[in-house]
Design goal:
The protein is an alpha/beta fold and 171 residues long. Helix content is 44%, strand content 23%. It has 7 helices and 6 strands, in the order βαβαββαβαβααα. Helix 1 crosses helix 7.
Length: 171
Amino acid sequence: MKVLVTYYSMSGNTEKLAKAIHDEASKNHESYLKKVDEVEAEWLNKHDVLFIGSPTHGGELSAPVKKFLTGLPKSPRFKVATFITHASPDRVDYEKCFKAFEALGKEKEYKLLGCCDCQSRLAPEIQPYVKEARKASDAEFAEMMKSIEKRPNAADLRNARKFARQMLSKA
């Protein structure tokens, strides 16, 4: 199978997962790793499986990934698996991302194999905005940051590789 792993990453978290997925896919398949802004639309239908990764921004997919998704062809020959990174311990904060992938799957008529998520460290430049949005005290926010500062970690990357194997076996 031909596999394309594509992603947008602001802080490097989503890129780490993308590389783990690509490394796993490369073991038994022809796999390519590209940032979403490097992928040309006409190249997409040359693949059997497309992994798409995005960080969450305000509980939604990142703008570059949204733009990429709108450019997907209708009724493509490839199947799609998605992954997101987020800082929130609360699924409700990032569930909109999964719903966006599902809705677009219906609109574009692609088969969605599955989705996975990884809680990960928060980029320093957006920490003040997240603290304010969560209405967290300094102590609460410091505890939250401490719990995710080393993520994605080795276990998260193992989970990403496992996700890749599962999705490829479904394809």
